[in-house]
Amino acid sequence: MEKTSKIGRRFEGKVAIITASTQGIGFGIAQRLGLEGASVVISSRRQRNVDEAVKKLKELEIEVLGLVCHVSNAQQRKNLIEQTIQKYGKIDVVVSNAAAIPSGNAILQTQEFALDKIWEINVKSSILLLQDASPYLTKGSSIVFISSTSAFQPPAGFLAMYGVTKTTLLGLTKALAAELAPHTRVNCVAPGLVPTQFTEYITSNETIRKEFEKPILMKRFGTTEDMAAATAYLASDDASYITGETIVVGGGVPSRL
After folding, report:
1. pTM
2. Is the residue at 155 inside a domain?
3. Which segments of the chain have a pLDDT < 70?
4. Of 136, 162, 233, 241, which residue is the catalytic one?
5. 2 lies in a domain?
């Protein structure tokens, strides 16, 4: 994404934490919020990825703090919040983007450790991170969960349990919106398929790729910029009267009525 006059400055003076944000959709969101004026706090499990992402964002003159944080690690989650507050003193936006697909099996063939891991990373860690962050959320703050179009119709096979956890985020969005209103808004973005390292096993296989493309009305996969734009909207004051909602960003892929 180029730093152009087309991008506004809706997040001037605001602080945004984005989890799993050194690559793919998470990085795209961090870049978009940063270009709109936010001080962004990015994180990843690997220091090398953090360093590379920080370098890219600084080259765009974005104020950024990069930290190692595996969202299932309690101490690293707490450190993420503590370092953010130590440097910036507040939290205006939290984007929960971390996700995993630890098993290639159907639900009834998935071992217990894999069920625990996918639940912990895709759902539980989001709740625990927000428990740590909530004392520092400013009035008018915004939380955005990154779900998936698979949340509305979890597919059979290896993506089934992933889809189920993403369905849970739709309910979590509504429950937390009620719990945190009117101080904090809580919304959700449900991306369609976006070619990233996370989805390479789909997009690199021509046969599978074509099957996933068939139901998309726009006849293309989404981009990280598409997802970042929707997230930025929900996190901004432009969406100040929207809470408890999910925006599907799937190019018209069947999702719901």
Report:
1. 0.94
2. yes
3. 1-6, 199, 201, 257
4. 162
5. no
